[in-house]
Amino acid sequence: MSQEATPQNILILPSNAGRAIVKEGALIARPLLRTDEFIKFCKARGLSLDRERLIRLERLGLFAPIFRVRTPPGARRHFVIPPTADNDWFKQGWAWDTTSVRDTYAVPDSKDRNHEGYYSIFQIGHLDFILSYMTLSMHMDSFLEVAETSEVAWNQKGKQWLKLFKNHASVLRDNDYRRSQALLCQFISNRYYPHTQGDQRTIQVSDGFFVDPWISVNNTMNWDWHEYVRHWKPSRTIQLFHLTREKLRHAYEGLAIAQESCDPMARWYQLIQFVSVSERRKLKGDALRAETLRAGAHMLRLLYKDLYGEGLPHPNEVTGTVITHMPELEVRRDTRRYLEFVANRYGLNPQPKLCLMVEGPSEELAVLKIFESWFGAHPGKRGIEIISLGGVDTATGGKEDRFRAILRLVDYLHHHQTFTFLMLDNENYAKRLKVEARKKKSRHQQRRYVTRPEYIKIWRRSFEMDNFSATEIAAALSALAPGKVRFTRSAVTTCMKGKNPMASLNDFYKRKTGGDIPKLQLAERLVDGMLAKGVRRTIESRPIVKTLERVATLAARNHPPTMLNVWEHNQASKYFGKKGR
């Protein structure tokens, strides 16, 4: 909950703050903008502004740059910032602090290019406030209605409006708080601004070098932000701005409220903070202005943490009362996990809901074709990832570590809330794998087993022979065989009765053709035949279709968690594995 403004907790405008910013060199990480650059910056953020209006506000004492410079007499070198003993334009009268409206100085004409003003991007909140009180909005249709019966008293209306805006201007001139807020942000920008230019995983740090026709910032080019951070002390900030815990918190909350109020995407802030800086810079209008204000708020939040060891709420969680944080605050310490839950909340997490592990490429091709042709969509659209294991032996491991590797992988995937379903031929140790899975406890959740037995499908003979008739297999082999070689239903049936049916069929095919069965082409022909019109055996009766229906249902029921407690509940449930003692 934001605190109420009182004289004791409102920032006071420091004397010569602009000069202090220059002396401190507090415009290296976030350089100031010249007049035309600042106008362009403001327009991109939805403010109605031109050079003439900006200078006029300065003449009225409502808004001013951080400092001004004028072209010095003769051929002079740049104003070096931070200033040196022999190069300080403030002392030489070629630059002057403009942060206090009470100071009297000659404001140049908007067309005078012998002067230049330097503005901070953090002044945009103050400028927006000024413009909102200095802009008249009216509904002309009301005057049209009055004009039909009587004359509009334009002179009287004009005097009333002029009086109103004179009062506004008087109040705005005395508003030191917003001026001080912007100056404070700029003063601490070298320390904290890079932290605001990131995607929660990386930050962008400038080399700090900047030069234009008047000034040269960090001309030695030896500024190291990391070194600066190690030696930075906030005592100078406390002294200059007469900071207290209450003043800093009030300034922070003011900026936080301002950014949320103008941001059309405030409700999506958790997601947007993970978007790259380069993409966020493509925002426009109010959304882009909110980005700038939020950067200032984040800097004040970081300063508060350094000074008082207390973490303030996120800028978008300042107003109102948050009853339940989504996700929990403890999760947010782990940026990767935080992003995972946020992506789940917005339905953007590409993590598979289910991994379907099949024996080899031929089964992978068959499953893909069935999903696209019968279920009407690629399995990826249903959140299903197909993984080809490359044979039963790969799935069941070697003699020294049989079953452990694949079950450990299943355990890992279940721990990350991805259902795992295995489909294997009845070869070698496939049945033993299913038996071992019944008694393998999860390493991540001691009160349940790694998986459920029904999540492991072992074909009675093989994928091809359990799902397609001897007639269908014979026809497919005949179509694939070179020359005039033909295969009969009875020959395929004989192979099916062998101890290893697919090995027997491959040996038979090799004797007839001189080569191995092209399994990929066989799977493709078998599935095409299954999906063809007029087939005697219905698609729905095929074991593979029934199995894939179960797989699709499991994936559909797997709702990615948006909070840690939901994930913990899911892990402790029986969905991923049978309950253990």
Q: Radius of gyration over alpha carbons?
A: 36 Å
Instruction: Give the N-to-C terminal Cα separation.
Output: 46 Å
Model regions low in confidence, pLDDT < 50 over at least 5 residues: none
Number of helices: 27
Strand order of the largest sheet: 1-5-2-4
Layout: helices, strands, pairs:
Layout: H1 17-24, E1 33-34, H2 35-44, H3 51-59, E2 67-70, E3 79-81, H4 89-92, E4 95-97, E5 115-119, H5 124-133, H6 140-147, H7 154-173, H8 176-187, H9 189-196, E6 210-211, E7 215-217, H10 225-231, H11 235-241, H12 245-262, H13 269-272, H14 277-280, H15 285-308, H16 335-345, E8 354-358, H17 361-375, E9 384-388, H18 392-396, H19 404-415, E10 419-424, H20 430-439, E11 456-458, H21 463-467, H22 470-480, H23 489-496, H24 501-513, H25 519-531, H26 543-557, H27 564-572
Parallel strand pairs: 3-7, 8-9, 8-10, 10-11
Antiparallel strand pairs: 1-5, 2-4, 2-5, 6-7
Please give a structural write-up:
This protein has 581 residues and is α/β, with parallel strands linked by helices. Helix content is 48%, strand content 7%. It has helices at residues 17-24, 35-44, 51-59, 89-92, 124-133, 140-147, 154-173, 176-187, 189-196, 225-231, 235-241, 245-262, 269-272, 277-280, 285-308, 335-345, 361-375, 392-396, 404-415, 430-439, 463-467, 470-480, 489-496, 501-513, 519-531, 543-557, 564-572, and strands at residues 33-34, 67-70, 79-81, 95-97, 115-119, 210-211, 215-217, 354-358, 384-388, 419-424, 456-458. A four-stranded antiparallel beta sheet has the order 1-5-2-4. A four-stranded parallel beta sheet has the order 9-8-10-11, sandwiched between helices. Strands 3-7-6 form a three-stranded mixed beta sheet, with no helix packed on it. The longest helix has 24 residues, at 285-308. The radius of gyration is 36 Å and the shape is elongated.
